[in-house]
Write a structure and sequence with these properties.
The chain has one domain (about 5-145): Nucleoside Triphosphate Pyrophosphohydrolase (Alpha-Beta Complex). The protein is about 25% helix and about 35% strand. The chain contains 4 helices and 8 strands, in the order E-E-E-E-H-E-E-H-E-H-E-H. A 4-stranded mixed sheet has the order 4-1-6-5. Strands 7-2-3-8 form a 4-stranded mixed sheet. The radius of gyration is 15 Å and the shape is globular.
Length: about 150
């Protein structure tokens, strides 16, 4: 069994005032397309909260405090770069009035594999025909509404 690299990551549950959530569509060369929340791996010395704000700014152009961590997931997967990882993902909930997404901060890899984004309602997520992550995103969003 191959050892997996630890990958601490911050992910953002970015919703607009209508309750829709932003997802990016990834189109890797080695697997079918999938959708994912904004976010990514921590930089060395960075806290989860610092990474959440940086990733939000880089991937969407929105610069907001991401507030406290609202969920945590551990997952094993292969990154777009082909690295097997054990991810410790911390989720941050952010609501925004801004729905225009700026991708100027995307890396070359992100520019290649993240060409689409979309705001989804929970009903649209429930019937969407491509996988999205986290797989229980609809339930996570429903819990956020209760808070």
């Amino acid at each position: 069994m191959t050892a997996r690299t630890p990958r601490p990551a911050a992910r953002i549950l970015l919703t607009d005032r209508a309750g829709r959530v932003l997802l990016f569509r990834f189109t890797p060369d080695d697997r079918p397309p999938f959708w994912c929340t904004p976010g990514g791996a921590l930089d060395p010395g960075e806290s989860y909260a610092q990474a959440a704000r940086r990733e939000l700014r880089e991937e969407t152009g929105i610069d907001l405090d991401c507030g406290p961590e609202v969920a945590r997931r551990e997952a094993e997967f292969v990154t777009i770069e082909g690295e097997a990882v054990s991810a410790d993902e911390r989720y941050f909930a952010v609501t925004t009035d801004v729905t225009d997404i700026l991708v100027d901060g995307h890396t070359a890899l992100e520019q290649r594999v993240m060409r689409e984004w979309r705001w989804f309602t929970r009903d649209e997520l429930a019937t969407h025909d491509e996988p999205y992550f986290p797989a229980d995103l609809g339930a996570m969003l429903a819990l956020m509404e209760v808070r």
